[in-house]
Specification:
The chain has 2 domains: 2-147, TIM Barrel; 167-224, no CATH class. It is built from 9 helices and 5 strands. The chain has helices at residues 22-28, 46-55, 63-68, 76-81, 100-121, 133-140, 142-147, 193-201, 210-217, and strands at 2-4, 10-14, 36-40, 58-61, 85-88. Strand 2, helix 1 and strand 3 (36-40) form a beta-alpha-beta unit. The longest helix is centred in the middle third of the chain and has 22 residues, at 100-121.
Length: 224
């Protein structure tokens, strides 16, 4: 499936498991370029992804759906290793979250888990945590903008660029950092029972914000 957007960008749904060698075929015929964004490419080889990078094309990873549907290992690790502009996306919202914070967490922990499995399979202990929070943050900001051909307009906090800024509190029970720098996105260490009961009593359903929850329950939680 290919979708041609108004700015000339082609979104190409590609899964190497069903079309092995297709990326090489496209590269040989000069059909890859900055106007092409490949979605999935889970089983593309390193050589194929290097061809994608050399052509200036980009990659979108939707890790939660890729893992669920048996497409293969998400190409986040392999895309970065091949120096491909690698962005994150969401897919099939009826069965996977459309929240990019969830996508970042899922992608990061999946990449780490797969790397750990390789380490353990080699007979060694997993003593280091690979990949950083910055890697997935870049994937949904700067890399995402570049993939859409908007890197010169947005995606970074820089003078002259367009931006909608979201500021997250670091002293809140949801967004607070982990005590260990090696385990970002971890859940807080304080008890969750009050927050859980407040969320259950909120009448605003799934759209309830932390601001609404803290206002209704008065349990000292502060909103983002």
């Amino acid at each position: 499936m290919a979708i041609l957007l108004k700015n000339g960008l082609v979104l190409r749904d590609f899964n190497g498991a069903t079309a092995p060698g297709s990326l090489g075929w496209l590269a040989e015929r000069k059909l890859l370029g900055p106007h092409v964004n490949l979605v999935h490419a889970c089983n593309a080889s390193h050589e194929e992804l290097r061809a994608v990078a050399d052509a200036g094309a980009s990659l979108s990873v939707t890790a939660e759906v890729e893992m669920q549907m048996g497409m293969g290992a998400p190409a986040f690790r392999s895309g970065l290793a091949a120096n491909v502009t690698t962005a994150l996306g969401t897919d099939i919202p009826s069965s996977a979250s459309s929240d990019l914070f969830s996508a970042m967490r899922f992608t990061l922990q999946t990449a780490r888990g797969l790397a750990h499995l390789e380490t353990l399979a080699s007979g060694n202990a997993a003593t280091e945590v690979p990949f950083a929070s910055r890697d997935v943050l870049d994937a949904v900001t700067a890399a995402g903008a570049r993939a859409l051909g908007l890197g010169s307009r947005t995606g970074r906090i820089a003078e002259g660029l367009e931006a909608d800024l979201v500021v997250l509190r670091t002293d809140d029970f949801i967004s607070g950092p982990s005590p260990s720098r090696a385990t970002p996105f971890s859940m807080p260490t304080r008890p969750m029972s009050n927050a859980s009961s407040c969320a259950a009593r909120s009448s605003n359903g799934a759209a309830s914000s932390s601001r609404a929850i803290s206002a209704r329950c008065g349990n000292g939680l502060r909103s983002v």
